[in-house]
Amino acid sequence: MSAAADRGVPSARPGLWQRLRYRVRIALREPTTLIGILAALLFAYLIIVPILSLLVDAGRVQFGDERRIGTEPGAWTFYYISRALFSPVAGNLFWAPLVNTLSVAFGAIGISLAIGGPLAWLVSRTDMFARRWFATALIVPFMLPAWTFALAWTTLFKNRSVGGQLGWFEALGLTPPDWLAYGQVPITIILALNYIPFFILLFGNALRRFDSQLEDSARMLGARSSTVALKIIGPMMLPALMSAIILAFAKCIGEFGVPYVLGLPVNYDLLATGLYRSISSRQTGVAAVLAAAIMLIGIVSLLIDARLVREARKFVTVGNKGAMARQSALGPLRIPATAFAALIFLISVGLPLLTLTLSTVMRVPANFALSNFTLDYWIGTNLETVALRTGILLSPALWSAAFNTLTIVGTASICSGLLGLLVGYVVVRTPLRPLAVFLRQVTFLPYLVPGIAFAAAYLSLFAVQRGPIPALYGTAAILMLALVADQMPYASRAGISAMMQLGKDPEEAAQVSGAGWFRRMVSIVVPIQKGALVTGILLPFISGIKGLSLFVILAVPATDVLTTYSLRLVDYNYTQAANAVVLIIAAIAYFGTLLAQKLTKTNLADGLGS
Amino acid sequence: MPAITLYGARKNYGGSAPDAVSDLDLVIDDGEFMCLLGPSGCGKTTTLRMVAGLEHLSGGRIAVGERVVDCVTSGTFVSPEKRGMGLVFQSYALWPHMTIERNTDFGLRLRKVPRAERQERVEKVMKTLGIEKYRDRYPSQLSGGQQQRVALARMLAVNPDVLLLDEPLSNLDARLRLEMRAELKRLHEEFKTTIVFVTHDQWEAMTLATSIAVMSEGALQQVGTPNDIYERPANRFVAEFVGSPPINIVEMGEGSTNPLAVSARAYFARHHPRLADIGSIGMRPESVAFALDEKAIPDGAFSEKAVVSGVLPTGGSWIIELAAQGAKLFLTTHQPPAISDGDAGWFHIRPETLHVFDAEGVRHAAADTQLRGEVGSTARRATRKVPA
């Protein structure tokens, strides 16, 4: 007799009201949901409101513009949009920077693809000499701030068009032309060098995962190498390649430091520097339009990327088990290939860092006599300069900037690390699905908004008092808030994936053993996630230290950090000191990244994919 | 006294998905070793998690003893940490940052058991499971079998009223699994705990359980002793799921024209003319015999010509594949068979070992009465007496 067929009356289904009451009771049984709701409110305020405020700024009359526009401040207007897009000055304000940005982006991506693509293949699928060493060495530029290389470039190529210490070539009597010293060419080259690691990481990863058996099957069926490359490998690699291109593009759109150093001297504006100009000349409305444009480009390109990544996932299932990567033998090309990789390493890492380092210990550029070398710029005293009369390491300004960096970036990183883990916990555990979806998406939003536009949004929201929140401009608080919000995509991703990996079991085991929510957090979740938490703090810290775009808009001299300090030194033409500070930042970023990788036993590429 | 009662328990994960568990009525008695058995995705783990409180219900209610722990209609929900149960996960879910000893005494610390007593109990349970020498190691330093023991020890230490086991042996190799099976049985006798055990392995269920609940697609198919389940499967699903090699089924429905069905129909018409509405018959491989000589067929047995198409030794026993009237039959024997491929003869089976199902695939009660001379069913029913 079947027990299923055995049942007489079907049990009464609970009514809607009863179901609702039951669900609410279960949702509120633990603080997870409550914490989630609080976090959702916090992020709505830190992320969505500034962006909305910025968008509103683009459509309302700003203070100081009422005369020109002829209406009260706060009234709705198309003035800024038409001024930025259609007026006689629109060319300078918007279209020229847009065209410049796009041509730099496409140029840089073209070059880095042409170099990075073959390199990715060399380090992942061939028997090149020192392959493993190159795999790490070639992605070093990714760990360093891009404008480090811009400073190295000026150290080499700066000419007499701009005041200050000469570049090495000029000092040797070979005057570099303006087009080589500033503007489109150097910006494109430096960004290209900076994006090569993108291709090595993303494209190389896809190549590594590519199952050789797929190739072999085609070969067994009689396909020639060229056919295999064209019909099998090519189509399957396309999503990864497109993804790398688009990520590089999105990064390029918001790039500020490089065009600031290399573009401004010859008035070569990109969108990001144009935005900076508008803000410093107090054209808030136009700045808002520019920021919105940057945001729009960023969002569109990342949406395309998300689509491609999904596309790529479809392929992943094809060759998951028993995948094996076979290396191609390069044969006689082994030495030239290795030389090519070495050359790229030299150009993208060795030369810039060497130049910068040497420049900090040389009095006069490009004079390699022993008497020209000195450690004065690091540790000297009573120098013959107007300001900064001591070596940089003895200058109180450096230490106060370092202290500021440590406190501001440090606090923000600790906050975002903790918040990230909390968001991860709520997203994975809450029974309220809409809350999980909202938190996941809102914390990811800043990823779509380039830092400079985000900074502009913060400026727009917190420059004046609003309700109970006082005007925060000029305080360390606005920097910390902006940093936290800006870092949330990484922190929350890290938190979510850590919680996903942990799975429910260990926590449920504790729950069945009788541990309540708080006890489980303290005894189980946090101790197990220690590593993830440390990384969740360390990675934002590194990116905060090299970050420039947020600080350049939101920092004031009282909240000077290492990056803004070095930029000011550049502006004042204290070349050696500026380069020294940049080297310090680069060293912190590099060793911090290594530490983070060691702690998590992961490599950088994993955090890049989506 | 029932330890656990599920009454119309239902779980739906939302959307248009079918119920993961639908209207489940099940009583698990105090001290019982109950196995939830079924193919993957049948809702057995969901049922276990609902009992533990790790999943909440979409309808119905669950009571532990006299106390309702989960009921949608009255809005009652007792948190897992307050249900006093133990749960051993398939993944073991040991806490990687704690030593074996800390893993084991975690529950006792939570219950604020005095230090001396705590140590004594941990000592005892670790000794019982043979893990006392690993007390200062971390889970990652233990093998799968040792981790499994720690997971068990951790739950046994708090002496729970009910111990829930979610496929705890599936990650072990065959030999260890056998050892742990014996150990579980011994522990059940020693600690007298009610155990609910989820598995998809029928041998595990057969060897361990005092009763088995077979589930399929979220619905309970049959509850009974291991013998009941094997000897008197309540329906086609249970008959076909339990047993290896699987039971031989002959479809007998209206219009079934395969020669074996025709011959079976003729057999029933001659020997048991009053039996109507036969949908299919099942023959356990060990009940089927093969004879080269027609005279060896006992009286009243169902038999038909067959040709040997394969002899597969499995070590100690043999599986013989027969082609009978175009149908394929398996039989098992422990005697070394003196036959080889291509031998022609007869298969035969005694009527009382036949399993007869009606057109819906439900066990044919009248056939049991006629063929076996039994009345009614011994399959235990779910009780409806649930405390309000």
TrEMBL record, chain A:
GO biological process, one term: transmembrane transport
Name of the protein in its database record: Iron ABC transporter permease
CC annotations in GO: plasma membrane
Major localization class: membrane
Residue span(s) of domain ABC transmembrane type-1: 98-308, 402-596
Source organism: Pelagibacterium lacus
Transmembrane segments: 34-56, 102-121, 133-153, 185-207, 228-250, 285-304, 333-354, 398-423, 444-465, 471-491, 531-556, 576-596
Cellular compartment(s): Cell inner membrane; Cell membrane
Coiled coil (UniProt feature): none
Similarity comment: Belongs to the binding-protein-dependent transport system permease family.
Keywords for the protein's UniProt record, in alphabetical order: Cell inner membrane, Cell membrane, Membrane, Transmembrane, Transmembrane helix, Transport
From TrEMBL, chain B:
Keyword field contains Transport: yes
Keyword Cell division listed: no
Primary location group: membrane
Subcellular location: Cell inner membrane
Domain ABC transporter: start-end pairs: 4-242
Membrane topology: Peripheral membrane protein
Gene3D superfamilies xref list: 2.40.50.100, P-loop containing nucleotide triphosphate hydrolases
PROSITE patterns: ABC_TRANSPORTER_1, ABC_TRANSPORTER_2
Pfam families, per the entry: ABC_tran
Keyword line: ATP-binding, Cell membrane, Membrane, Nucleotide-binding, Translocase, Transport
Domain of life: Bacteria
InterPro entries reported for this sequence: AAA+_ATPase, ABC_transporter-like_ATP-bd, ABC_transporter-like_CS, ABC_transpr_MalK/UgpC-like, Mo/tungstate-bd_C_term_dom, P-loop_NTPase
GO molecular function annotation: ABC-type transporter activity; ATP binding; ATP hydrolysis activity
Gene Ontology annotations for the cellular component aspect, listed alphabetically: ATP-binding cassette (ABC) transporter complex, substrate-binding subunit-containing
Family membership: Belongs to the ABC transporter superfamily.
UniProt protein name: ABC transporter ATP-binding protein
Organism of derivation: Pelagibacterium lacus
